[in-house]
Amino acid sequence: MVKYAIQRIIYMFLVFIVIMLMCFVLVRMLPLPVLPPEDPHTQVVRMRREAMGYNEPYLVQFGLFVKNVVTKFDWGLSDKLYFGQDVWSIFKQKLPATVIVNLYSIIFSIPIGIFLGIVAALKKNTWVDYTISTLTMVVISVPSFVYAFLIQYVFCYKLQLFPFVMEAGENWFSPAMIRSMVPAVLALSFGVIAGFTRTTRAELTEVLTSDYMLLARVKGLTLPQATLRHALRNCFVVVVPQIFGEFLGILAGSLIIEKIFAIPGVGSLTLNAINGPDYNLFMLSTAFYTAIGLSAAVVVDISYGFLDPRIRMGAVK
């Protein structure tokens, strides 16, 4: 299991380097933003460009970029949106808003999704199962920004229960701030609820039809007893790694949802960096999202081995 984990981590770093190199070369092929002559930061940005080898071949530039990140954790200066400011400092200021909104969404979504999946599995081939399964497929098929607009129309415009956009400031746990987050949390929750509902229903349905569940029923256990003692434990071998992946993914956020609800997080920062364009901010955002996606995949794969001894023994062989 340790050997497998080390291999997956090494592969993750290799894929990360390849993706970063591709993005770096592509973004450096674009024209550089023109430096404003009257700004006091212009000379500093120009000197940094020379130090980073902007006139050198792309591989040399990438080597200098990686060296600065690894040795100094220096991602460069913003040359467009926050001209002359350190991009890592800007990124750190935007991260809490993304984490808070997505954390609320996951805490709200996961119990509901698992509960609906259990109900659908226990009521298999009934109107309850058909209703939950149909709604799940509809929710998965529709993009999240559609729900965002519907939530704004119904809850913010018609009922006027919540504001259209997130309140400004950093008082994350005040009643007014939490109330302003509710529309964004709901928009992010639909997809998570549907995903856990589908996974839980599929796994639990398979477990309930297995031989050992039939044996448990023959021994005198009722369906709820057999489900709680045996079925859910085996079902969660698949569900729990998905939970790990979701919690790791709270850092990533949602680019579109953050833009719609004016959440001052890394999602809207990334879109602004692309539209800017702001190359150093774009590279930091790309590295962040790539690392989150690859790390979530590795955590899910490794957690399977810890949760299921059969997978662990298979890896040893």
Overview of this structure, please?
- This protein is mostly helical.
- It has two domains: 2-72, no CATH class; 96-277, MetI-like (MetI-like fold).
- Helices cover 75% and strands 0% of the residues.
- It contains 13 helices and no strands.
- It has helices at residues 2-28, 42-51, 58-72, 87-122, 127-141, 144-158, 175-208, 211-218, 223-248, 255-260, 266-275, 279-307, 309-316.
- The radius of gyration is 24 Å and the shape is globular.
Concise synopsis of the structure shown:
This protein has 317 residues and is an all-alpha fold.
Rg for CA atoms: 24 Å
Q: What is the percent of helical residues?
A: over 70%
Number of strands: 0
The percent range for strand residues is: under 5%
The computed structural class is mainly alpha
Query: Taking all residues together, what is the mean pLDDT?
Result: 81
Inertia-based shape: globular
The CATH homologous superfamily of the largest domain is called MetI-like
Judging by the overall fold, what is the CATH architecture of the largest domain? Orthogonal Bundle
CATH topology of the largest domain: MetI-like fold
| Number of contiguous helices | 13
What is the makeup of the main sheet?
Answer: none
The secondary-structure element order is HHHHHHHHHHHHH
Count of individual domains? 2
Low-confidence stretches: 313-317
CATH class of the largest domain equals Mainly Alpha
Distance between the termini: 10 Å
